[in-house]
Structures are given as C-alpha cells and as structure tokens.
Design goal:
This protein is 37% helix and 21% strand. With 166 residues, the chain is an alpha/beta fold. α3 (95-105) links the parallel β4 and β5. 33% of the residues are buried.
Length: 166
C-alpha cells in the first residue's frame, strides 16, 4: 500500500514537472547570486560563473524532493560534463540534519542550505513558486530557464543538450 502511494506521489510530481510552466523572470534581471552554506562553509553561486549550472531548490524532508533528487542523480550521470549541479534546501529547519543526509546519500553533487532570503522570496531568484524548482543558469550567471515542479531526468538531459552544455 505504501509503495503504491509513493508511486502515485512520484507520478503526480513527474506529471506536474512535465506540465510545469515557466514562471515570470526573477525580479532581478541579469546575473544572479545566492549565498548558501555547504558543509559549514559559506558559498556563493557566483563562484561557479564560467560554467553552466543546474540549480535545484528542494526540501529534503519532502518525498517529492527526495524522489526528484534521484532524477537529478540520473541526469548528472548522463549529462554533467561541463555543467555543474547544485542542490539547495530552502527549509531553514533542515539545517540540523542536512550534513547527515549528505553523508548517507553520497551524491555526486553538493547539497547546501540556501540563505534565508531564498525561502522568503527576496533573493535574486524572486519568489520560489513551488518546491522543487530548477533553474538553468548560463555561464554568465543568468537564468535561461525555470522549471517548476519535479522534472524527469530525460527532460533535464534534453534541456542541457539543447543549450549545448554537455
């Protein structure tokens, strides 16, 4: 029964991702920058300029985000190349167990805790419509696509390939 319910949640999330529309551009046009904490160290998205970035915002305590992270792992294995993947939790209450989560999952990309302004909608990303939301950010730090909801690995790989980011 639980497996069937979990499968239905995944299916609904994937359908929502496939049908998800683009949100309006962030309120701050041009290159974006977001601070986040990773392993106790403060990081900035701007440090990754020069390479394209797949930035995924999640809540690791939610099953939809958990299953979406599995899709990100698959997409990373198939399309990372020159593209960096960064996953940020936007739930400040997840800070105490984020390190343990990262250690248990052994993911091929970093997971950090986004600065508070992301959760409150005042960061360069503007209001985050739903979690998960994925931002494709070009080499100059400009958002070129926003995907609302969970997205399948195949769709993400295609979006990366369309931009020649492999």
């Amino acid at each position: 029964m639980i497996a069937r319910l979990r499968a239905l949640v995944v299916l609904a999330a994937l359908i929502a991702g496939a049908c998800g529309s683009r949100t309006p551009p962030p309120y701050r046009p041009g290159p974006i920058d977001v601070a986040y904490e990773q392993g106790g160290e403060e990081m900035r998205l701007s440090r990754l300029r020069g390479r394209p970035v797949v930035l995924a915002l999640v809540r690791i305590s939610e099953i939809t985000s958990e299953m979406f992270i599995d899709q990100l792992v698959d997409a990373h294995a198939r399309a990372a190349g020159n593209t960096r993947f960064v996953v940020l939790s936007i739930a400040p209450n997840e800070a105490p167990f984020l390190g343990e989560y990262v250690a248990q999952r052994e993911l091929p990309f970093p997971i950090g805790l986004a600065e508070w302004s992301v959760a409150e909608g005042t960061s360069d990303l503007g209001l985050v419509p739903v979690v998960p939301t994925t931002y494709l950010v070009d080499e100059e730090g400009v958002i070129v696509q926003i995907v609302v909801g969970a997205v399948k690995a195949d769709d993400l790989v295609r979006a990366i390939a369309r931009r020649g980011w492999r």
